[in-house]
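Why does residue order matter? Because the sequence determines the fold. Keep that principle in mind as you read this record.
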Amino acid sequence: MRVFGTIILLFFAHHICAQDIASLKSELSSADERKKANIENTISELYFSKKEYQNAVIHANQAIIHAKHQQDAKQELRGQINGGNASKKSKNFKRAISFYNSAIRISESQQEPELTSYAYESLGFCFSELGNHTRSIASYESAITSSGNNAKAIASIHSRIGYNYFKAGKLKESISSYEKASELYKELDEPQSYANTLLNQGRVYANYGDYESALSRLNKALKIAKESKMEVVEGQIKSTIKDIEQNKSNKNEQLTGFDQDVKEKNEKYIENIEQANVKSLKEIENLSVENQVKELKLLNQQSQLILNERQAEAQQNAIDKKNLTIAKKEAELKQEKAEADSFRAWLIAIGSVSILMLALVLMYVRNNRKLKQKNEQIAEQNVELDKKNKNILDSISYARKIQNALLVSNELLSDRFDEHFIYNQPRDIVSGDFSWCFLDSDNCIIAVADCTGHGVPGAFMSVLAISSLEKIVKHQGVKGPSEILQHLNDDLYNLLKPSNGDIKKNKSVSIKDGLDIVIVNVDVTRKKVLFAGSRNSMIRISNDEIIEIKGSKTHIGQQLGHENFNSEEIACKEGDAVYLFSDGFYDQKGGNDGKKFYPKRFREMLRDNSTKTMNEQKDKFSVTFDNWKSGREQIDDVLILGVRL
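Structure:
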């Protein structure tokens, strides 16, 4: 809570630090009834200063009782705030809320706007600690309404509102609140608060997915932190920028530290102002001379002075005449020299231009010859590159045929389902997403997976995963989805784990390749689905209701011996639609604003089309995806598999 809370306590304390609790309790037994509320409040504040918060609450309650009996609103308000502060410090936030609500009622009736604002702000803090971010935001907004023109307090409250919006998952509102706070801190010339607010705003932008805006705010904060020598904040900003850059380059890596409300206390710097002392000079007084001179001597001196002046004037005229003659001759010589220099410069200029023109011609001829040679080399290289590209594309296209042969086919699904579809839209020629199916008399096992990367690397990973599934299910006889995931995790880890040489070179080496997958075993007769997933979900649409079953957060292939893959058995009804999918569809950016499709819109699209035939759904999803991209580049592989029970 901001420093204003301390000011409130000091305002009510009446210099209590010099008083002793025991003497006050002794005074209380014989005190007039009108003074008891003040004494109880003073004891409460002394206990608060000693961090004995439970005793502080007890005496705050006693002060409230005495104040109510005497109808002393001021002391009752003081007791309510004392009780709220002590409860808040002891983390009994529900009791603190009760005290602060009573304080608001009294302060509003007494027209105490600063105390009203303080109580509302304290309410906001308590609700935030209890996780009730909606009521926290409402309380903070009421604090702004009551706070008058205290711009610094308003900026702090806007920042807290931004934090609560972030915790509530309302990222746009959080960004807006942090923007208001940062603008106020900028106007107030508060570099530390300004930089911290920009840091928090950048983190929210990163969670929202707008990395450019996030980096813009963070770079601005970094500049302020460097200029103000805020080393701790500078380190936090650099770490956040690094996390965002990693998140942009690898979609599977997660940003860390975004749920923490880190508050760093920075050193305060004192500016030394040097004042220049200006020394003044003393005026020098003119010394006087005697003026008692005889008049005759004065007349002689004046006559001699006039004569000397006339002689000097004649001599000066002669000198001036001689100088004029000399100056005239010098001017004539200078003019002749200037004309000669001008002619010489003209000749030099003509020669220089001629030499330059000749050099340019020679350079043009030489460069033209080299350019012709380079163009011929480039043409030959282009022909060679075209041949290599054609060979590469032919190889990848053939790899696509091989991959398609491994994927689940419509014919195989038709053995168990009257209605089904597979919508597969790779980003490149080959895909990192794949579907797989196994059928026997008792089991119908279907898998949909999203491998690390896309294109050729993703396709290689999909081939490894399909090969492992074939071995686990067909040869080892494992049929439970959760057990299949455990075996698949260990197989991929053993295939992809770093060599001993890599571990010796880099002890911190880790495996980042793997896949996200969902596996179901469908009992068509009993209308039951056994589900297990790793970072992928299954959606069931029944009677226009969306039921999403989420997989565990464990990543396949990155660690040996995972055993916490969840397994669920879902009872279904005839006509229910079941969908397995990768994240490529709802991660695609498009529309008018270039934003992601997002999971919520994806779920609603499945529900709105669930009553159509499966083939109609596939066509509808294809059209929807193309319209959403609206000419933009596809960013990931897309795969949706749907069946109707």
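Confidence is low (pLDDT under 50) at residues 1-18, 252-296.
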